[in-house]
Amino acid sequence: MSVQAFIDECDAAAVLIGISPARLSTIVFGSGATLDRLRRGCGITVRVLERAQERLQLIKAERQAPDDEAGVAA
């Protein structure tokens, strides 16, 4: 995945989840400024990008997972 494709995926995920891109950047990179730096053309290592992609996929999967308590009678 290219860096630009990853940025686009992050933007879409932030909208889907309902958080700002800076907050998503904090979650996947540990810094709220990293996505913005990538948008400006700064570089990133393949290893860091791969880890961020993994974290983003986990976040998206958690968001799409059904609520464990749904349908459970009290």
Main β-sheet, in a few words? none
- Please, what is the average pLDDT? 88
Q: What amount of the residues lies in strands?
A: under 5%
**Shape, principal axes of CA atoms:** globular
The level of helicity is: 55-70%
- Regions with pLDDT < 50 over 5+ consecutive residues? none
Tally of individual helices: 4
**Category by helix and strand content:** mainly alpha
Radius of gyration: 14 Å
- The count of domains is 1
Q: Find the count of extended strands (DSSP E, 2+ residues).
A: 0
Order of helical and strand elements: HHHH
What is the rounded distance between the termini? Answer: 45 Å
Please give a structural write-up.
This protein has 74 residues and is an all-alpha fold. The protein has one domain. It is 66% helix and 0% strand. It has 4 helices and no strands. It has helices at residues 3-17, 21-29, 34-39, 46-64. The model has no long low-confidence stretch (mean pLDDT 88).
Observed structural traits:
mainly alpha, 4 helices, 0% strand, 74 residues
Give the topology.
Blueprint (H helix, E strand, L loop, with lengths): L2 H15 L3 H9 L4 H6 L6 H19 L10
Helix pairs in contact: 1-2, 1-4, 2-4
